[in-house]
Amino acid sequence: MAGRSIRLGELARLLGGKLKGEPDLEVDGISSLELAGPKEISFAIKTNLAPKVKSSRACAFILPETWQEDLPKNAILVKDPYLAYAQTANFFAAKPFVPKGISNQAIIGEGCQIHHEVTIDPGAIIGAGSKIGRHVHIHSGVVVGEDVEIGSESVIFPNVVIYHGCKIGSRVRIHAGAIIGADGFGYAKGPDGMVKIPQTGIVVVEDDVEIGANTTIDRAAIGETRIGKGTKIDNLVMIAHNVSLGQHCVIVSQVGISGSTRVGSGVMMGGQVGVVGHIEIGDGARIGAKSGVPQSIGPGETVSGIPAIPHLKWLRMVNALKKLPELVRDVRELKNRITRLEGHGKDK
What we know:
The chain is an alpha/beta fold. Helix content is about 20%, strand content about 30%. It is flat, with a radius of gyration of 27 Å.
């Protein structure tokens, strides 16, 4: 983060917050409450961190506008301190792109259109006919197939594979080991075994998408698998052929989405969610971690469980499950009492 600084008043304006303190104070970076130095700003999400704020060496703090404790000498009060932290961290982390050109140890196919302001590291392979936009950084070990398009300011980290014909938008980040455009899993059962269905489509990744390490996104059987603008996908996610993800979705680690499922915009899926194929998940839906989704979910619904049901109902079921041993014991005791009462009746 070294090398950038900002005055506290300017940072407050950038964050849309209310400044309490010295507007001309220079801030050189951001760090945690415990590690921040005297020229760095720090942040607290909740008031229970007030003791740490008091003991921190930071020169200023980002705090919630509802802060009830004594304010430090310099503070920016904001509605969402976590968002303000992200914005501040991005400011200090930002570095100008310095194009290093194409390494003489990279392999470039015939007919490629590569902007002169790029960085292509040693060991990268670019297939024939591919198009690489301005300020793209392709790291070592990346394999880009034939006729692939990569938009401006995208970063492709080591050992990513992008199969032929796929289209990657601008400002996309694809992390190490991800596979974009492998064959979808499609077979028909024949008299002599499984017959492969050719996967002739592509993957389209729209602008501002981030794809985590070792995630796989399969190409379409026909047409396209599409990842919508601004969507963020964690590590170890599997997205099958012909899936359509809307804009600004959040897909957490180890999610699996089966083929031809249509996911709306603003959808959030917790870790290890499994979704069957050929269903629709409406805009703004939320799916709890480890849920199994066997049918379509309406817009704005929140579901959890296996199979996924309305979240509040699932919580009631889980709470009841905790009481199951006691219920079993009570039922057993009642059964024994009934048996004894029936026995007494027969004796008479």
